[in-house]
């Protein structure tokens, strides 16, 4: 069991390293709230992170907020619960209509790796720490 946990930790770690690198290259990341922003900062993400629940924004405001950044691609990293899944789908469709590429690679990969265990981005850091402790790292 610990071998499969180690592989899981390695996969998540590599994925997060790629996320940090993408962010460093200037790709914005869209998350739900401030706690998600803080969690990404704890995971060493230094680039722009847009929290869509800040200031009581409604869906059209979120799309406008992302569009105003002038980026050709944004990483969507909303929560893994039903609300987050619905917003991810709606946001991806809206951004595509604006010719902004919604990068879902990280969201889909993390959902596959942690989806049953973690419901939100803010829980990622503690989840990874727990897995590492279980593996004896």
Please provide a written account of the structure.
The protein has one domain: Dna Topoisomerase Vi A Subunit, Chain: A, domain 2 (3-Layer(aba) Sandwich), CATH 3.40.1360. Helices cover 58% and strands 10% of the residues. It contains six helices and four strands. It has a four-stranded parallel beta sheet with strand order 2-1-3-4. Helix 1 (2-24) packs antiparallel against helix 5 (105-114) and helix 1 runs antiparallel to helix 6. The longest helix has 23 residues, at 2-24. The protein is elongated and about 45 Å long. The mean pLDDT is 89.
Distance between the termini: 15 Å
Mean residue pLDDT:
89
The CATH first-level class comes to Alpha Beta
CATH fold naming: Dna Topoisomerase Vi A Subunit, Chain: A, domain 2
Morphology call: elongated
Structure keywords:
single chain, 137 residues, alpha/beta, Dna Topoisomerase Vi A Subunit, Chain: A, domain 2, 4-stranded parallel beta sheet, 6 helices
Short description:
With 137 residues, the protein is of the alpha/beta class.
Strand and helix map with partners:
Elements: H1 2-24, E1 28-31, H2 34-42, E2 49-51, H3 59-68, E3 73-76, H4 82-97, E4 101-103, H5 105-114, H6 124-135
Parallel strand pairs: 1-2, 1-3, 3-4
